[in-house]
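Intended use. Records like the one below are meant for learning the mapping from a protein sequence to its folded structure. Do not use them to infer anything beyond what is encoded.
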Amino acid sequence: MKQEHRAATTEAYNKSALPLANYYNTKSRVADVKLALSYTKKADPQVVEIGCGNGRDAREVLKYTENYLGMDIAEEMINLARASHPQAKFEVADITEYDIPACDVVLAFASLLHVSPAELEDIFRRLSQAISPGGIVLLSLKEGKGSQWKEDEYGKRLFYLYTPESIKPLAKGFKTVYTDHQLLNGVKWFTQILRKK
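Structure written out for the chain above:
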């Protein structure tokens, strides 16, 4: 069943890649990128972005480091990212199966909300092996409990809802160093930064 959910969500992002990219481009995460990178002392950190979409935030990350890798499950999104940022590295992959490379900073803007709590716990287990000591992970997630399907002009997608408190037992080996709550278009979100212990 999980594969069916993932397939439907992936299909929505592939079919609506261009209109979604146009929408994403109006909502840049410049401040969040700057905030995340302020938590690392490395001059040229290795940054991995999970669910990079059309590469919207790669432009900002590349101002701070040349060591950037963006990955996304939607091939059409990656095609757009490569076209926009030919100097950057992008990969098509499913984070639930992805061999996360060694890194210092992981960015996950509204991407890990497509994975279940069990999958997120496994992702954090693998992140704890890949990320350097003191490395950080930035998450932005919809706030709440359970899961919900959303169907709109972009297609049908499955979202899992989390709270900052629900992340703690899933992110073993990490400690929370920053949390912020937002209300966007009537939807509760939160941003959390976790540091590897």
